[in-house]
């Protein structure tokens, strides 16, 4: 996703989900979009978002329990439902699996997005891999996210 596409998405979300729009604007304004986002893509099926994925990194391993509480608070502010945060491991590294749903209006139509965030820390870097699925049945999309998260190569 280019900077102009991100700006357009922020504007599209301003009415339907102001909290998410503000969070994305903060990402853009902070420069983290350029410095820490390793990959970002949105897949539009013409009638609305089919799915998206992004990977960001930050230095240092935060305490996962502190991060879990922070994530839960942010999701509550955005109006997320079905929030489930589970301790897990990825490639032998501690992490969190964050699952939730978020109702939005995209292209003038209501849609509920199913989301999974995979937080992985290897002791040096924290990786956040985020998958968002807009299909009526997100099973295949989310399974693809699980496979991608399992293939993330962390630093030694």
Number of strands: 6
Spatially, the strands of the biggest sheet line up as 1-2-6-5-4-3
The biggest sheet amounts to: 6 strands, antiparallel
Sum up the overall morphology in one term. globular
Specify the helix fraction band.
25-40%
The number of domains is: 1
Q: Proportion of β residues?
A: 35-45%
CATH architecture: 3-Layer(aba) Sandwich
Unreliable parts: 42-49
Query: Mean of the pLDDT scores?
Result: 77
| Rg result | 15 Å
Under CATH, the topology can be stated as: Protein Transport Mog1p, Chain A
Report on the architecture of this protein.
The protein has 156 residues and is an alpha+beta fold. It has one domain: Mog1/PsbP, alpha/beta/alpha sandwich (Protein Transport Mog1p, Chain A). Helix content is 37%, strand content 42%. It is built from 5 helices and 6 strands. It has a 6-stranded antiparallel β-sheet, with helices on both faces. Strand 5 and strand 6 form a beta hairpin. Helix 1 runs antiparallel to helix 2 (18-30). The longest helix is centred in the middle third of the chain and has 15 residues, at 64-78. Residues 42-49 have low confidence and may be disordered.
């Amino acid at each position: 996703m280019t900077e102009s596409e991100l700006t357009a998405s922020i504007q599209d979300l301003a009415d339907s989900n102001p909290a998410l729009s503000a969070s994305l604007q903060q990402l853009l304004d902070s420069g983290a979009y350029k410095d820490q986002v390793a990959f970002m893509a949105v897949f539009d099926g013409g009638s609305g978002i089919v799915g998206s994925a992004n990977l960001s990194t930050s230095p240092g391993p935060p305490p996962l329990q502190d991060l879990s509480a922070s994530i839960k608070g942010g999701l509550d502010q955005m109006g997320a439902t079905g929030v489930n945060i589970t301790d897990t491991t990825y490639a032998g590294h501690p992490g969190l699996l964050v699952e939730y749903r978020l109702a939005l209006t995209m292209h003038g139509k209501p849609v509920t997005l199913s989301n999974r965030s995979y937080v992985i820390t290897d002791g040096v870097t924290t990786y956040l891999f985020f998958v968002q699925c807009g299909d009526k049945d997100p099973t295949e999309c989310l399974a693809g996210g699980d496979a991608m998260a399992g293939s993330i190569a962390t630093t030694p």
